[in-house]
Protein 1
Amino acid sequence: MTYLTQYGPGPGALPPRAHVVSDAPRISLAGQWRFRLSSGVPADADCADPGFDDSDWELLPVPSTWHSHGHGLPAYTNETYPFPIDPPNVPDENPTGDHRLRFTVPDTWAGTPAVLRFDGVDSCGRIWLNGRELGVCLGSRLPTEFDVTPHLLPGEENVLVVRVHQWSSGSYLEDQDQWWLSGIFRDVALIARPADGVPDFFVHADYDHLTGEGVLRVDCDAEVTVAVPALGLSGAAPNRPHHVGVVEPWSAESPHLYDGTVSAAGETVPVRIGFRTVRVTDGVLTVNGRRVLFRGVNRHEFHPELGRVVPLDVAREELALMKRHNINAVRTSHYPPHPAVLDLCDELGLWVVDECDIETHGFWISGAEVMGDDNPADDPRWGDAFLDRMVRMVERDKNHPSVIMWSLGNESGLGRNHTLMADWARSRDPDRLLHYEGDAECRLTDVRSRMYPTVEEVELIARKEDEPLDDPERDARRSKMPLVLCEYAHAMGNGPGGLRAYQDVFEHYPQAQGGFVWEWLDHGISHPRYGYAYGGDFGEEVHHGNFCCDGLVFPDRTPSPGLTEVAKVFAPVTVSGAADGRQIIVVNRHDVLSLDHLVFTWSLEEEGLPAARGTLTVPRLMPGDRADLDLPDLPVTTGESWLTVRARLAADNLWAKAGHEVAWGQCRIGPFAAPQDPPGAVPATAAPRSPGATTRRTEADDVRLGPAAFDARTGTLLRIGELPVSKARLGVWRAPTDNDLGRGAGTPLAERWYAAGLNRMRHRLLDMSVGDDHLFVRTRIAAAGQRAALVADYLWRERGAALALEIRVEPEGALGVPLPRVGLELTLPDGLDEVEWFGRGPGEAYADSREAARVGRFTRTVDQLQTPYVRPQENGNRTDTRWAELRGGDGHGLRVTGEPFFDFAVRRWDAEALDNARHLPDLRSDGSVHLSLDAAHTGLGSAACGPGPAPDLLLIARPTQLLLEFKPL
Ligand code: GAL
């Protein structure tokens, strides 16, 4: 099977050209094909014979990945190849899907040259038309065209046969972190190529920001004509510049496109032209003379039911969803997307880093810093294959204004084959920049790219205080480059934490030009038992578990709290209160737009209830401008009052309706004792108190304090009003998040927690005393085998119809590890389904992921308070809560008031059950309601693949107190 194991590109393909949809006849071959899966490469190719009887084969839709239709099992690995590293050989067990289609071509095609175009076949396809072999597709996410003119039978039945192999030499270059899925997963079309048609062309549309004028040049090797009616251009010649006067430039914020055509006698091709000029000026990446700040995401092409097939309407909606969350850039990790996605990016306005379909990560020697010597990137035998992939990407996508950088691929080390790619791309398209994160010294690139640096590292680079390169010349060159984080803020599970800190650096240093959150989407596969399956769920020999579920949206593309946080941190307008509480500060953080497209409103809430509202007049602010505005006339309020300012779209656009909220900000109004922006940290206190005198006992062996009853022997809370309570005691455990479990910052926090036994703490009563109006209980909390402990003092007091609690916690000995959280947990009866609170919300929030939570009054059911992370883990925390009420259907329940604030979470299972669950269906109600009321949580960080929480957000065990009041409802 030489074609499977040859290094170079597949034989038989035509030279690549731009993806266009012209008026030349075109027949989509999408539909139901006949399909047969073999576990290895079949010995013969009988099925290529048009007369072959395939009537007993199954039907399979094309485009599809066959694993998504019940044929074979998907496998997930991050960097490890799921086959021996033995390049360019592939295993004998090489699942092979034969696909057959009969189709007719109208008579009118007779005499017309035609091509067969495959937009994506994973990983290798051998192709026959009417029994004649056309060639081989290699390069899964790249198009291949074959000339079918001599073989096509117009007016008759044609038989197309595609033999797709899961593994090929190409698989060595496609080791991206994703599911291994095979098939003809993008469109297949028969396209007429009239002899007098339009050959390939290259649109260059520059914008001069000083004059506002555009220059259009369409390069083409034929006598085509170019027309752009809106510019008064018709019959324009190719290959020379046309000065078209003042134009509206293209940018992600204002994606103005001019519709035009490129025509020849026998064909007209519509084009959408965006004028823009990309430059690095004084170390800053500019488009049209303006600095660009990437508020980006990495986007893979994945669908939970359809595998690599992402229907166009789904893609459109997901890009619109990005826009609605203030995302302005996409890195097409780690391969060129479906070609229509770039049309959408042009239209909706997203900066694109178009990445080549190359990753050889599995050649990384385990534990080492570098790729192995056999890495294809530096092996000349792979040179043509590398270059071929770059050429095919650039040629396919060269006419998209949204694409402003080409990326040489991902995680493939650095080698001579990258030089081939870069040299070619630079000469073919000098108007775009080159990116490649693997080129740490920036020998080949125009931008410096990093993944997962700490905020401190980003700042050092931005200040030019980072470790210089040995070669001073190269160092000087690199330090004049824009810095882009091609990946940061790993959004796996609950997180990322710490987005704000990065954004502050990006907003401060011009050369730190933002980045791309890893990643947009969780790659969970819909599964009847697991809900969403991840690595290992299909019995893979090697896999990387749920590392594929690291997106800002869940597999069905519903937003996770991470996306809400992104929307707030990326907001192109910031609104905040001045320190004196008398003014509102509005800053325009757009790259291009003024705020004229937004309408500002304000609302005042007192104790979370509406008190007044109005519109806010904001003067014209250009990008970077700031206005300090006087507060509107507000009614006098006495309770805690917050002014919320919202910036909404004034009119519909392509990605949102008028009224869509782009940005918001809050400021606290009036005199207040509490800080404007409570830090959510634990107040330290004096030493634990000594118990008071014992005086009172009740007849029934219960201790009664106001509405509450306690076990007289153990001091355990039994009831508040009618509400039975159990296990009311100190809790420190949280079901580790993926970030807690992550190695990005060294030994995972969670590993240290388990070692310290924080998930199996035992409570021992040390002391107890009862006074007239109080109960004092002291316990020691420690894990088996451990000396270190926490000592908790609970001072319960009668306070009229309420019960007050003061908990003080103090470490005894060194725990040696930060606590996951610290607070009181209570188990309450089932049926308390509704929760209302005044504090930050409505979404979950943690110490380093709380920008998106505003202060207000919210109501949610217990079920709504859970966040369905694909792998269950800590979630649902609400922070800075002033009070919370849990109510049953009859309105009875419990009110908890903080002095001043607390965090809370309510669940139908406890933290241990959450920790033990592997998939969402594992979580089942245990018949009670578990409430945690916390002084604080350790931050989230991004250690699943990156830095951990900032040091000050690690909850170091120290004297801590929490003040609460309970009232039965
Ligand atoms: C990066 C890689 C991505 C992904 C990420 C972790 O190293 O480029 O493809 O694996 O780490 O989720």
Protein 2
Amino acid sequence: MLNLVLFGPPGAGKGTQAEFLIESFGLIHLSTGDILRNEIAAQTELGLQAKQFMDKGELVTDEVVIGMIKNKLTANSEAKGFIFDGFPRTVAQANALDEMLDENKTPISAMLCLEVEKQELINRLLNRGKTSGRSDDQDESIIENRISVYHEKTAPIKDYYAAQNKHFDIDGMGSVEEIAARLKETVKAL
Ligand code: ADP
């Protein structure tokens, strides 16, 4: 089983690159951002609660996202492997993920961290905001907050995976195809 954590700041290209990896390796894509946006679209209680955090660029509570991932793992017990995109985003989430995967004896294979310069992140997100309808991509102060939250709460997870020898930095600057090729090469070498 191949379980990948696709990691990096907002705008690093995780969703785009996940598409390539799914195709190449036959994995199931679990994006907490997408799951949360589906909940908002369906106007569920969970979605309404999550929206208050997402609109400000803050993280949704660990309890909520961990529960969502748990449900997806149970629902896809026959999968060849998963790409976790936007999860884990805190050390508590990383711990919870390891515990869940431990139960099935299918640990994380690698954490692939896309490295992108800050101004490039802001440009990509503002560009996406023009077409995606995502309000959190349309306001530069919310984007700045998401990037700060990433540095403060999410980036420390690199050390968590480095301690398990599972952390790989990938240059996330360049064309979509170039970055996809770098990721594929790293995964093949695992
Ligand atoms: P991006 O990577 O561009 O910020 P996402 O779609 O991954 O976009 O996430 C959008 C928002 O959803 C985040 O700003 C956060 O509020 C919420 N979110 C997504 N995943 C998580 C998570 N694992 N933990 C907490 N909040 C999350």
